[in-house]
Fold this protein.
Amino acid sequence: MKIIIDFFELLQKNIKAIINSYGYKIVKIKRPNKKKITNRLVNQTEAIAAHFDDENTYNLVNKSQFFTVQIDAKPGINHLREALNWLVRESISLNRTPLVFTPHFDNCHNFDIEVQANWDKYINLNNIQIIHKPTGNAISIQAVMEKDITGFDDLSVLWVERDHVITEKENSEFDLIIRHNKTGLEISCIHNGIRGLPEYSVTFLPSACVLDTYNQVSNKIENYCAIHVRRGDMLSMVETYPNLKHDTHPDQIIATISKVLTRKSNIYILTNERDRNYFNPLNNDYIVFQYFDFPELSELIECEKPDNFLLFEIEKLIFENANTKIYTFTHPEGGTRISLSKNLGWA
């Protein structure tokens, strides 16, 4: 039986490859108020890409048409936030309302415990900032979740594969378009054109929960500095970060930060180092804080259903608003910043 199944899967892949070689794509469609899903063959060599109408930015998105992506990956929140960025960009380029996917995180970033949450726990879906970089003009758009759409099951739906060019006809014909993109990240043949909106930037603002908790913590620290110390999984990546273990040792951290921070400075440390006592040597010269010094933060982790991703979002705000920011790695694109290590990296 398995041999037969494997044969038909191979046959299906070959047929699909042959169809694609002639410039055709197979898409799936569901008509309004119908449950049956059918296949359609479309000619991509004659496709006229959907037009991006940004002349009236107040009507940049149609509130009755939606776009989303289907993602297979289960990574960390930064990866999924980047995927959300591309989803929003493509939605706007189609003048559609973004329908956000449910984030499925890699449990290894959360003590091997699954987190079940929607994006509105971490970001403000009602106020996503779209900025036209040449002019600086900014508008606010709203993204939605499936539960926000009345009559969701009655929508007409188009499912397309990763490299499918959405046409003007398809954009006007369907209520919801779903693109399958395994990683959710940039698709070179799609997003490097109008679908990527190179003249626009997308900014996600923190959710009310994130902002409220950040304010509670920041009110307890005055004139603080922040250090991001990335260790954990990256310590094993010796070829990429050969100096990381040395550069993030407490003695070396003191030697580095003493050049820019005065003694007895308030320091908040963001880190994935599991040993709570690891940074104790810094207490001799500085007033050091970590998440477990604040009940508002420790309760997010020290509970039956911890959410390290929520803590990360709050700590990002703490870091961004610090008087002095010290990163783990040197800027990979040559930017100027204070860092613990000469190794290149974003953290």
